[in-house]
Design brief:
The protein is of the alpha/beta class. It is built from 15 helices and ten strands.
């Protein structure tokens, strides 16, 4: 790995603040921009299929959209073949405005794992090394990766991170759960700390960060270079500003309004409404009338109806 690419990630993780984790179905361009406006250090796209890019799938190509004003943003790809991973980088990702490329080595979902991608790569470290090296070689951009701490009852965090580092990957994000845990239970901070201590490249800790206090605890306990926020940012993109020590930019209602407006600017109307429903569930969480609002959003068919429901969020 060149010194320039290595220093890129060192600068990216420098200073107080948190970054946005990749989340399928959530971290599209609209939500990433919203988090960037709220001082996220950097963001990562929802995972993109390398093979689908090679086939020039129209919906997958749409996922490569990146908006002006986003913080440094990485595009996350997944796959199980060196050839398709390398080809997707050369044909598509090198020419995008994404700042770096992230390899998904942690997705626990069965339909991804069954193809040998995602966290399945942690069960075959020689294969992981070949894929990582192929992506690094093909990429004109810095390359990072996201892993889990264990798979099949075996702790693999340290070994996988070292394999990735030796393959030229410049930063590793570690979700402190095993593949089998999915998103249940508590993140294992001791396991994240071991990975951070074993690597010379920046290691980013991920799992259960939903407040300034949990951010500070993750950072101090693990010694990680930075902290990644996933589900804790849903319905609360303002968390990044709070972590950075900045004054609030939006209320939950204002954030939801801005979010849906961005969605309408970047997607067909009906698709924007459909996909915003999942976000609305998080924005309305804790409202006295939450049940009523959630029922109503599932029936909303026009932008005006969605904006009206957003106006009823009592936060």
């Amino acid at each position: 790995m060149s010194g320039t690419k290595r220093s890129f990630f060192e600068q990216l993780t420098k200073g107080r603040g948190a970054c946005l984790a990749p989340m399928a179905g959530f971290t599209d361009s609209a939500f990433r921009l919203l988090c960037s406006e709220n001082n996220a250090l950097f963001t990562v796209s929802e995972m993109v299929s390398a093979k689908a890019l090679c086939y020039e799938n129209a919906k997958t190509l749409e996922m490569l959209k990146i908006l002006d004003g986003e913080a440094p943003c990485g595009v996350q790809i997944f796959g199980s073949e060196e050839e398709s991973m390398s080809e997707s980088v050369k044909r598509w990702l090198n020419s995008t405005n994404f700042s770096f490329i992230d390899i998904n080595c942690g997705c626990p979902v069965r339909k991804v794992v069954s193809t040998g991608a995602g966290s399945a790569l942690l069960s075959d470290l020689p294969k992981l090394a070949r894929i990582a090296a192929a992506v690094v070689k093909a990429s004109s951009k810095p390359v990072s990766a996201k892993i889990r701490i264990a798979v099949g009852g075996k702790d693999v965090g340290v070994e996988a991170a070292k394999v990735l580092e030796q393959s030229g990957v410049g930063m590793v994000a570690v979700h402190g759960r095993s593949r089998e845990q999915f998103y249940s239970g508590k993140a294992n901070l001791d396991a994240i700390a071991k990975v951070a201590d074993s690597c010379e490249i920046p290691v980013v800790g991920n799992g259960d960060v939903d407040s300034v206090e949990s951010y500070e605890y993750m950072e101090s306990y693990t010694g990680c270079a930075s902290v990644m926020v996933g589900r804790g940012a849903l319905g609360n993109p303002m968390l990044f500003r709070q972590i950075a020590g900045c004054t609030a930019l939006y209320s939950a209602k204002e954030a939801a309004n801005r979010h849906f407006s961005l969605s309408l600017e970047t997607k067909p109307e009906q698709r924007a409404i459909k996909e915003f429903r999942a976000h609305f569930m998080h924005y309305s969480k804790g409202c006295p009338n939450a049940a009523k609002l959630r029922s109503a959003i599932s029936m909303a068919a026009a932008p005006q109806e969605v904006f009206s429901l957003i106006g009823q969020i009592s936060q």
